[in-house]
Amino acid sequence: MSDKGLSRRSLLGGAVAGGVASVAATNPAAAKPLAAEPMAAGQSAAAPSHLLRASAITTTSDPWLPDGTHLRVNVSPRIGLPLHPLTAFRIDVVPIYTRPDKLETSTQHVWLNPDLSVAATGGGIRHTGSGDVHYLVLHGWQWTFRAVRCCFVRLLTQSGSAFRVDVLDPTAELPDAEPRVLATRTAPSYEFGGTDITLLRVSGAGVVDLVEIVSTESPYIVIDPAQAVSFGLPIGSGPWYAPEPATDPVAAARTRVEQGAARRMGPPDRPDGAVVPLTPADEVNRVQALSGASSGLDYWLARAFTDPATPPLDARVSLAGGPVADASGTISPLNALLAAAVDPAVARHLGLAARVNPPTGTSVCTLWMVAGLWLLPLDRPHDAGTLRSLITGFPPPAHVVSALYSRYPGLSALATQRVTQLRAAHPTDGWTAVPLMVPAVAAKATPDRPAAPRTLALPAATWRVTTGERLWTQRIPLLGPAAGGMLGLARLSPTPVSLHGTIRVGSVDRARAMVAHWDRHHDDAGSVTDLAVTGPSNSWGLWRADEFGRWSDRSTVAAPAPAVAGPPTPIVEAEFRPAIPDGGLQPRSPGALRIRIGVPGPSLPGALPSRDVTSPGGAPVTSALLTVDGVPQPAIPVPAGVTSVVATVAVREFGVGDTAAIPVIAKLVDAAGRPSAPAEVERTVHDPRAYAPLRVAPTLLFAAERNPMGDSELGLEWSGGAWGYRVYLGDERRLGGTGAGPRCERAAEVWARSGHLADRRRFTLVTPKPLRAAPDGVVRFTHRLPGSLRNVQFVRVVPVTSAGVETPFETCGLTPVAVPVPDRPPAPVVQVRPRGDGRVDVTITATGLRDDLLAGLTEPPQARLRRGRLADSDPEYMPVVQTGIPLVKGPDGTWSATVVDGPAAGFPGYVRLTWLAEVRYPAEPHLPADALPAGSDVQPIGGVPAGPQVSGWGPASPPTNTVLTPEVQLVPRATVRPGQGYNEILVTNAPVSHRYAIAPHQVVVHRFFASGPYPSAALPPVPITATTTVVRDTTVNPRPTGYMVVITDPFGRSAPPVYVQY
């Protein structure tokens, strides 16, 4: 893509459109062609050049070709060869300046600057410096806004102009990519002929005055059948070919080869540049040798054109067992013929080239219209589009087709017959007889010979693997774009040697044609390779030929030999052989590595390896160096001819179960002391011993209480001395337990048989991935068990090494675990009876306790007592005042206990107290009664010591409350203190109620009067809150004569009155 966002034809077409529009605006007369009745817009009589292309040059005193005009036709493998010999119709182009003719002065061309901006439309161009460059886009008779095709162009320049004019491939991606050059002229006259001359590049100083062209769409091109020549295949009439009548095709082919024979040997035969003349007979003999070879031209012609059921386009040949040595797969015979036709002599032999008469003295050039009738599958799918889409709009004139049918009388019948046959066999391919025509123009001036091949920087050479002479390989990359024609390649040192394949011609070997491989995906770069270079350096000559057989000058490249290679990289294999077990647990070597160091030998193509123990370009290998686990080992001699050497190296000491990757590095050393590149392999080595089992005890461990989800979590921990641990879980029933009796006794019975419980199928692996120790060195295991599980579970912790070696299963003891019993006793009943000392007797009675949960237990159920002063009876808000109260079973099966509750001084009076009680079953023992605690590595998480599992408390009893009501023991004392308008009665030695009493004691004062209308009356009660209570009487007129003081308790009971006189 260019920086303007356009590429290829879109860029050129846009430039043409702009230029033509400019011409039309400034010169209305140029807005339509000057000829009458041109062909319909969008059509052309010439086929697309990528399917069918013809070219011609005229030579005079050329060092490579005989004098005359040389025609060359190139066909795409997609269309192949026509049903008959190609026919070229001659038209001499003679300028007639009184009226428009085949040669016209172009006014519609466009000059482009190097950045593809429009420099001018029509007319000429002036260059003032040798570095000036312009592109010329041609536009012919057909009036379309696109770059149309011209078959001849001539630039008329002023005297003294020094231009280089290149005809470029119009598909070039300008301005970024280097275009392919089709033809070049560096001196006048600047004229060119070709099928599709659309784009030229003009560089250098000078002035172009006029541009003259012959367009492929010119209506003045008239075909004269009498001015025609034929050139076809060297085969007779067949199912897919109609030769020219009364003509021997083999003799005609021989004549074409003789007439166009090269004058001298080319660089492939004589890279030294010596001029060795050739006769036409020499060229005929060479072509005959190429034809008669086992995989020669005759072989491919027979495979392509003799099967009446298969058209040449579809013919395929299996290469397996065929004439092509060491080949496989299939190939199209037609493709093989077209590939061979890169050799101009072969092209003449196959009817793709011929020498004809040059232009007349009065003509500017000679136009040859090459036509033929092809049998094509127009609708067959293809990545580039169907042929129908590619050639629609390119029909030759009807009189051209008529001339072909007249020249080849059997052609029409053959075409009809084969079309009918193929349409019946392949109805969807659209087989059709299609006439195609393409122009070739022979200018009087001969184009320059092709430029010498250009090369890119040479990549580093490489040594070849060989047991004989030291050889190296050099690849020579060629700068694109791809160029047609043959390539010449020779090694120049010490004397020039052709690198072409050869064929025997008589008593001499002649070079075969060579072409470069061009890679479109890598900037169109090509390459050739010399596979057998000798010496410390060398150089190469490269030549390029055009499609007619004219060779370029030589380009030369040179390269040094590769650096002398060290020994080949060895092949290392390491096999671990474990040591014999000794039963100990101390650090020791787990075994030894048997190390095999393979010594590669060079290989010859098609042969078994040759064991000369020599790297390409190097010296023989004499020893091997070995480093194991970072420790260098003594050098190992490598005798001549051996394929490998072996060493055994003991592995360093490992602890029990240790694992380590042991690196093994090997090198080969040659006689010159050069080491090879290291070869490294790692072998993981495991100590085969198992860890010692953990120490365990029969002590029954308990999981946590059941959570709201109904699960109970088991948590165990132990110090992790092993690499990892697998934990297995087994139920007492599966392990042969009876399930009867206290669980601690059942656990002890199964635990005693742990050494005999070796069947893993009785256990469940609950940690598929081994547990590893935490950073603090402790392994923690948690597992959820159903909260309703009653059976004893047994945990087996099995140490495992990093290699997966487990401690023997049966040696790993069992740790019994159980889920706490979830049952709780029913709520008890509480009775409270006051005592004379101010305390109370509390009786707790429980019924409904399950005998099965008490069986085998030595301890009785227990109760605890809660007491509070609040009206709220929620146990959470009532503190426990006594716990661990043993219950005694009565004759009626009830469990009860009576306890004294209260402080030694007794409860305060008039305070409401509430009692609740809860009962629990006895703690579940963790060991049988006669067993002693034993040490174990496996402990509950958190360091909680093992012990009996205390049962949970049952629901609380209904609340029971009471209020103690002691008699008033104090006798109050009262005095009157008169005041101004009032009397105050002071009461002392009266009881003060507790702060939590249900109500306070009160003082009630009654008045007494000596006489008069005022009766005795009581003053409002006054609560007693301190040691002295003051009652104020504001009735002083008349003043009372005395008062009666009465103390009442919280229940309203009155104490004996006390009188006071005023």
TrEMBL record:
Database matches in InterPro entries = TAT_signal
Q: Which domain of life is it from?
A: Bacteria
Q: What is the name of this protein?
A: Uncharacterized protein
Native organism: Micromonospora echinospora (Micromonospora purpurea)
